[in-house]
Model the fold of this input.
Amino acid sequence: MHRYALISIAALALAGCQSPGKDELASVNFGPRPTRWQDAIRDYLEPRIPDLKTAIVTFRTEPQQMLQKETPLRGRQWGWATCVWIDENHPRGHRGTYPMTFFFRDDKIATINGGPDDANVVGAKYAREQCEKLGSPFNPKSP
Done:
């Protein structure tokens, strides 16, 4: 019985890695494309990064419709997603560059993967994978 439970858990975890089907994409309302998304991201980061003026915030992609499938580790999320790379460049900040993905619905941030409020292995993994799907594979050495 224990072996079957492990197989079931592994199958559920892998299911979240698959791309959503057309029916699943059609089941969500992405709403209009965000207009002030860069300002909203800067407003979000400002109180969370020690010195946003010295940080390098690189908007790697324009917002694109994306669906994050529900997994045992994360809930289902959807919206207009964008990839952002952050280099805090501050002694009290995070060392090195890291990716973040922001999901927008109704011109507001709906969820975030990676970054100061999600600084863990799972958040970083989701941010890296989503940045790649959005067209900006994370490579901190690239411009």
User: Anything to note?
Assistant: Residues 2-133 form one domain. The chain is about 30% helix and 25% strand. The longest strand covers residues 77-87. The radius of gyration is 16 Å.
